[in-house]
Every structure is written in structure tokens, then in C-alpha cells.
Amino acid sequence: MRATCWMGRNTVEVLDVPDPQILNDRDAIVKVSSTAICGSDLHLYDGYVPEMKRGDIVGHEFMGEVVETGPGVGNLAVGDRVVVPFPIACGSCWQCDHQMFSLCENSNPNAGLAEKMWGHAPAGIFGYSHLTGGYAGGQAEYVRVPFADVGPLKVDDDSLTDEQLLFLTDVFPTGWMGAEACEIEPGDTVAVWGAGPVGQFAAASARLMGAERIVVIDRFDYRLQTALDGAGATDVLDYEKVDVRSELLEMTAGRGPDKCIDAVGLEAHHGSAPIYAYDRAKQATRSVTDRGFALRQAITSCRSGGIVSVPGVYGGFMDKFPIGSWMNRSITLKGGQTHVHRYLRTLYDVVQSGRLDPSFIITHTLSLEDAPKGYEMFKNKADDCLKVVLKP
Fold this sequence. Notes:
CATH architecture of the largest domain: Alpha-Beta Complex
CATH superfamily of the largest domain: Medium-chain alcohol dehydrogenases, catalytic domain
Oligomer: single chain
Shape: globular
Distance between the termini: 10 Å
Number of strands: 18
């Protein structure tokens, strides 16, 4: 089969690789109908996530048709159309029993590697380094899906397109969980750093949860316009043109947003060239792994006693974490890889009912063979690129 393979920093290639096979009773093989390039894939592409190996198949946002099942998979049949969550979860460990599927204790065969980096291991993840299991990813023609009796959601409405459902695999639940963590109440002002796909869905989710004012912060006009037109933001700020914290204070009578969402993560940009150069140099020399501009600003901008939610991906260590602001002002800080399984049915119903059509974020649809072009386009924001869907 053909698959998108990581070949080194800033290099992916579409290569011929062996077809996946059933390895365990609870496996299924899915023929991919649609897959996407995620912002967190760019962290792999840029070389900031350790334990990638040349030839690894990447991608964790995919859906398709079941073509084979193991004897332990009784909930799916050949021919079923399914959406596959990006975390791999067994469904029966302590974490899964508590609905924290991205922390599954049985799906990461390389838990020892992750424990050295993070203290404890998260779940296995499709196509996302050997820290999270080294599983072959979804930017391919076929994928082996472990624990297929737990993860995939069967699509029972043929009128729903791949474009409407594909983002249930990751970015829609990720934005939703980021907003849910904020415990949004009527009248809240919510500020979202980053107008990429996760930021768009965080803003859209905050709207669905009843936020009164939603402010999205970015530097690209086309992404900010999408936040207004597609996600339902009430305000946008270009951080290269205004002082974000001052603007947020002005909007909130000096108090700051009630809830703040960092949907940027470890490769954050800063409007001040000297500040950006400082952290960029430290990251380039690997003296830190993460650039923390967005998280710092979210913490220092949030109202005292507020909540900062972090769906943006961080990988290791950052410089100048504002621990004094966090502690002295009683800020609640929440984060985590998304427990996609928890939200699949709820968000499927949101899409089916017409409350939100997630396809608004798609700007480019390419052949799988054009994945290298898609990565470069997405990384460089070329041609107003917001989200790339790949068709095998």
C-alpha cells in the first residue's frame, strides 16, 4: 500500500509499505477514505517530538471502511463505515473505566520511554512517535486499528459526508474538551489563543456551551475571518498589531477573560521579534523543547480565579513559566490529550442535528500522493491554508 512516511526533519515521503495485518483478536483493518494533516503532525515534521524513526507512517485523523476484523471484534462488520479516535484505548483499565481514554494503561507498548520523559505514560496514539507506541498512522491506504471493539464509531447515517465527520477523530473533540474544561457559564468571556483548527473548534464549542463573548487571537487575517464567520467568535485580535493583554483588559473592565484557552502549543509565535528570537534560539538549540508565548500570555491575561485550558500540544520543557501569576492569583490550569471516545457520540449528534458543520475548516483537499505538498502548504500557511484533507 501507499503511506506517508516521516523521513527526517521537514521531510515526508509517500512510499510503498507492507499492508497491515491482523495481529490480535481485537484488531480491525480499515481502508481509509479520508485522512487529514493535523497541527500536531507539524511538531513531528519540524523535529520537536522525540523518538521518531525514519520510515514511520504518520497521521492520526482518519476514517474509512472496515475490510477485516479479528475474532474478538463483535461490534463491527466488514463494510461498516467508521470514524477512528486518535488515542488507542483498551476500554477496561482504571483510566478507561474513568473515561480518561487518552491515558489508557494498556495501549502503549513503549510506556517505559514515555515514563522517562513525562513521569507516567499516556495511551498509544496512531502515527505519533514511539513515545506513544510507534503505531502506524492513518495517512495511508489501510490502517490496523487495535482494540477495534472499543474505539471506532460506526456511522449509521449515510447522508453525512466524510468532510462532516472526519474531524470527530481529533480536532473537534479536542476543541470541545478544551472548552468543556473551562466550565463555561452564561455571561463568560472566553479568549482563545490560536485560530488553527483546534482554536476554531474551541471557539465554536464555547459558543455552543453558552459563552457570551469569544475572543480569538492570531496573526493571519484569513484565520481570524474564519473564526468570525465559521466558529462564531464575537471578536478577534491580531497580536502583531495590538497588545493582546491590554485589549483583553479593555474588553473586560480591567478584569481579564473569565476563561482562556491555549490552542497553540509548543511552536507558539510572538509579535515581538526580540522575544520570539530568544525562545526560538533556545528551542533550535534544544535547550528547551517548547515555546511558551501563548501559555504565558493566557495565564497572565486570565482574570484572577479564572481557568486556563490547554488543548495545544506541549512535549517537554519550557522556559519562564509564570508560576507566580498562576499560584498567587488562584488560576486553575487544565490540560491533556483528548479523551476522544468520551465525546464521539455527543459530537456525532451535534453534527447530525446540524448544530455545527465541522467542514468549515477545510481549505484544501489533496491526493494522498500530494501529502508532502500538503505538509509544506500547511506549515507555511500558503494559499490561506487552514486544514488539508488527503484522499488515498
